[in-house]
Amino acid sequence: MEQLLGKIAHCVEFGKINLAAPYPPDMKGQEGADELTKKALEQGVSAEDVLKKALVLGMERVGIKFRENKVYVPQVLMSAKAMHTAMEHLKPYFQSGSVKRKGIFVIGTVAGDLHDIGKNLVSMMVEGNGWQVVDLGTDVKTEKFLEAAKAHPGCTLGLSALLTTTMGNMEKTVKDLKEQLPDLKILIGGAPVNDSFRQKIGADFYSPDPQGAVEFLNKLSA
Ligand code: B1M
């Protein structure tokens, strides 16, 4: 059982989606996250164990390597693809409520900003760590964030900005949301922002990378 979970974690870490996938080359011809997850569930491994002891573990490992510049964006995307494929088999368990997510994370790129590559990486990494993610996309106005935060009580919010010109929109969004929902925890990120900007605008946390976002969220849910 542990060996099978270890193999799934390895597939997620190295982005091995399924048997047919040629990537990574040294795992060509081997079963991937897809077949192994199906097998684990058929053999009676709980969906919760597959999630926590395999998928989350694999995503965590790739997140740490990404932070340390040991892997790059394409590898993270392959890991997320492998994780998503495995998650398809877990869907019925989430839907029936037998496996619980850690919480809800609402994320979007702020108004006026169309950059979504970094935001998507954060999204995938957080989802891979057992959170339900509501991704509002790019160019998200304050009203849309507010609507989503109200629709998901207790959620945590993530804002991404890639332009110096949209940092002002991030500031406005944080200010308006905090006025209306003072208990809402807000995490910010994106190339031009930093922790002193976070302090200035009154957000709760700044992370320079997806792994930091995951660690912040996990602390909140602990
Ligand atoms: Co744009 N762009 N762009 N662009 N673009 C930059 C950001 C820029 C630095 C390029 C430059 O001039 N050197 C510059 C900004 C300058 C500034 O503001 N100081 C710039 C500009 C000016 C523009 C336009 C204005 C260009 C124009 O039209 N004249 C325009 C703006 C459009 C708009 O948004 N309204 C524009 C458009 C575009 C494209 C559409 C062509 C494309 C975006 C495609 C897309 O995202 N789907 C694009 C791209 C790709 C870039 C660069 C090349 C790459 C950005 C990227 O994806 N990086 C960028 C230059 C560069 O960085 N080399 C540039 C990779 C990504 C993984 O990193 O997003 O930083 P990043 O995310 C990181 C962290 O920041 C963090 O985690 C991620 C992973 O480590 N993170 C978070 C991000 N969000 C987080 C949220 C969190 C936590 C962590 O919690 C919630």
In angstroms, what separates the terminal alpha carbons? Answer: 27 Å
Compute the average pLDDT: 95
Give the low-confidence spans. Answer: none
Shape: globular
CATH superfamily of the largest domain: Cobalamin-binding domain
The helix content is 55-70%
- Total discrete domains: 2
- Please tell me how large the radius of gyration is: 18 Å
Number of strands: 5
CATH class of the largest domain: Alpha Beta
Q: What is the architecture of the largest domain at the second tier of CATH? A: 3-Layer(aba) Sandwich
What does this structure look like?
The chain is built from nine helices and five strands; from the N terminus they run ααααβαβαβαβαβα. It has about 220 residues and is α/β, with parallel strands linked by helices. The chain has two domains: about 100 residues, Methyltransferase, Methionine Synthase (B12-binding Domains), Chain A, domain 1 (Orthogonal Bundle), CATH 1.10.1240; about 120 residues, Rossmann fold (3-Layer(aba) Sandwich). Strand 3, helix 7 and strand 4 form a beta-alpha-beta unit. It is globular and about 50 Å long. The model has no long low-confidence stretch (mean pLDDT about 95). CO-5-methoxybenzimidazolylcobamide (B1M) binds next to helix 5, strand 3, strand 4 and helix 9.
